[in-house]
Amino acid sequence: MQHRPALSNMAAALPGRCGFFLEKKKRFCKMIVSRGRRFCGEHATMEEGSSRRIVCPLDPKHTVSEDKLDKHLKKCNSREKPRPVYYVENINSGPADGDDTLQQVSLSEQSRTQLESLLDKLKTAATGLQCDEEDRVLSHPALQEELNNPKNGDSAHKHLKQQSSILGHLEALGLLGRGRCFVEFGAGRGKLSHWIHEALKTRDDPETQDHLESLDDLQLLLVERCSTRFKVDGKHHGVGVEFERLQVDIQHLDLSKVPLLTQKKLPLVGVGKHLCGAATDLALRCLLETPGLRQETGPPRKRLKTSEPAGPESAVPAALPGPGPDPDPRLHPGPVQGLAVALCCHHRCEWRHYVGQKFFLQRGLGAEEFSAFCRMSSWATCGLRPTTQDPPPRDPTSQRGDEEEHEPAEETDAVNGFLSAAEREQVGRLCKRLIDGGRIHFLQTRGFDSRLSRYVNSRVTPENVLLTAVPSSSSSSC
User: Fold this and answer.
1) Is pTM, for the whole model, over 0.70?
2) Torsion, CA 192, CA 194, CA 200, CA 204, rounded to 10
3) How far apart are CA 108 and CA 413, in angstroms?
4) Distance between CA atoms of 333 and 316, rounded to whole angstroms?
């Protein structure tokens, strides 16, 4: 059988490439073919005597030869793989009695009276909150050269500004140093971990440099639930640093069972850049509610000297009372020393996962109000998004939310009659503040001081709030 194009700008397929003509694209397929073959795997049915190709039952995005199906199913990338030891089903999902069946409130179906009632509840609940956001744009010298590089476009420059400020906040809190394990949630390509490593690699610290050859005193653990292309962590193979990537949903991650963390028991620092919606709550539970993890009882220590012994006594200080008996402390990771997480997409939060349920209930609010406030929270940024270009398609499996991908959650027709655009934006910000107030309350009950900071200008990203926390001293934040 022979396939001949009716009309083509190409006289023939390129050497070594598929000979199938794509009518829609008016060109030949560019896939590489096996030796002695004329067509690629997808178009192999054009070959005389070829087996019929069928859709893979594990993943409809690709096909397979029918006579090779059994062999393919054993090696298909979409096959169910053995679960790693640190995978524990729904360990960070929240209380089992959470209302999973609650439908998200559609504001367009609410009457004006119902909407006014919700707004009254919002203003009452937010009255007296002492967790105001403060303007605190910082930077770190490790990124200065790249920030000044004219080859970087606007998009790259915006990400660099955010990464620089996050590192600046880590530095100001005393969290940026060696002798720690940085856990990046929703890591994506791992650029934040990359810059943490670059910042610590270039430290002018004689004590650290003297011991780098004999002690691995820096660990970076990257958590991302989907397969990611163009990862940068694979390029780091230096002395004194360990990179490890876990492909797992934060919802099912038990940090106390990650072998890397139980070996040297370095103190943990949680980080994340635009940890989307419920992923922030899952990360907080993962750090602070996982059985076996400990929290420090005082402010973060100064950067650890690498000359200190790496045994349990030096790496794990006194701990707060845990959730239950401690059968074998030697298997525990180090203590949680702090966190810095850039927040976004509050409209993607879920009541079951939300760590501030007690905070809401104390204010006479429940799952229904939470759902409505989540929808309203998108009003804070929907007017700030550029409208001259379409956003890139969103990966439904990603737990990160970069600023180019923030999508509005709810149409505003229902409130256009009695709220102006400026008033809707103010309501959206109030909803975000209330939701984040619950997160700060959760951190306080776990022995941490926490704050919200506008870490970059809103022109860099409309989602410009950073949540930071360190073990409590004598005062509380909210």
Assistant:
1) yes
2) -120
3) 7
4) 8
